Every structure is written in structure tokens, then in C-alpha cells.
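Summarise this fold before class:
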Amino acid sequence: MALTTSRRRKRDPEGRMPLQEHLRELRSRFVKAAFAVALGAIGGWFLYPELIAALKAPLDHLADEHHTLANLNFGQVASPFNLKIKISVYLGMVIASPVWLYQLWAFIVPGLTKREKRYALVFVAAAVPLFLSGLGLAWLVLPNAINFFAEFTPAGSANLISADEYLTFVTQIFLAFGVAFVVPLLLIALDLVGVLTAATLAHNWRIAVFLTFLFAAIASPSPDAGSMLALAFPMTGLYAIAVGICWLNDRRRHRRDLETGFAGLDDDEASPLDLDAP
């Protein structure tokens, strides 16, 4: 027992570790994340019939409404099997997102302070529902996007859509909406580490709104105003919430600096030293 205890490496209080241990830690985190995704993919394999039916629902509605042929097309014998594997893996990543996000931050936190570790856990806890909210909004926008593009189909023609291309189209929509909802967390993180301030974000709100609508116009699956606004308005609201949180954090930081006597110092100005201190 004593021999086992003596062989244990003591953790560095600052989270530093040799490169070999760092690589072992990375491998351990990666294996845990991959295992969680694999378990999620198994669940996705059984959920595939319901999901593929839901993804095909806009095409079925299009066929009933326009009285035309609109269906998925599998160009190869193994294409249905490959599609099921891809969708199962994508579902596994979504189902296991809390696990692999935690493993990602757990790999980073050894170099963070206790307060920064708490912030990291808060970010993970907030990123998952925000990302899923973006996916939910994309799910609502998808039928309108398909109907919009289907309007360009000439009369008497049929929409035989490649299953792989359809999956790519849907995945791009979901990723664009999901990532867009997580961007405000990045702004808050930059404020917490001192890279950005609430004053900077508030001063440049016009630029932020313009970039938001520009991103929404590019990322939205169809060029109609409804799809663009469906993405732009939530992003603008989340940006305003991020500015408010950054403002509260800046006030807290300013009060702390006043208490410690560091307020008003430039970045390259030395702080006052208490020479009388023991």
C-alpha cells in the first residue's frame, strides 16, 4: 500500500504536467468522449426510422401539395446502409454532447484557476441547451426552405433528391443554427479573460447587428426573409443578453480593482507596492 502511494504522482497545484502525462490525459479524454458518442450512436441506430421519416416529411408534404414526385434517391446498393450509419453517428454526437463537451473542458481545466473552472462548467451547461435550441429552430425552418427551393421545379418534372446530398443540406442548416446560438458564449468568455469589454460590445452594436443579419442571410437555407429573420432575431437577442452579462462582470471587476487599488492603471503600468507589508 505504501509502495503504491509513493508511486503516485502528486498533482501540480497550478495544473502543470509533463508532456507524456499530457498526452495520456488527452488520450483518456478522447476515449471517454468517443465511447459516449458510440453509445449515443447505438441509440441513434434505433431512432433512425423515426428520424428519417421526420426528415422526409417535408418532401412528402411537397409531393402531396404540388402533386409531383419528390422523394429520396439512393444511387448505390449500399447507400441506404451508409446513410443509416451517418445519421446514427450524427445523432450520437448530439446525444453525447454533454459528455464530450465536459471531456473537452476537463482536458483544459488543469491549467485554470478554481474560479475559471467554475466558469468552464457553466459554459458547458449553457452551451448544450443553446446548441440544441439552434437545432430546434433549424428543424422548424427546414420545411419552409424545402418548399422555397421546390418552387423552382419546372412543371411536369420530378424531384429525385440524392439521399447523401439531402443529408449534407440538412446537416449544414443544423450546424449553422446550432453554432450561431453558441457564439454569444464566446463573447462572454472573451470578456471574462479581459480581451473584450461590455463597453466595446455596446459601442459596436451596429456592426454586430449588421454582421448578424449578414450571417443569417448566408447561413439560412433559403433567401426568403422569413428564414433569415428566424435566425437573425434570436442571435440579436442573445447578443444583447451577452452584453448585459459582460456589463455585470465588468462592474464586478471594477469594484474589485477599487478595493485592491488597481483601478485606473494602464496595462503597462506597475501596480503600487506595499513596502511595509511583512
Remarks:
- The chain has nine helices and two strands.
- The longest strand covers residues 70-73.
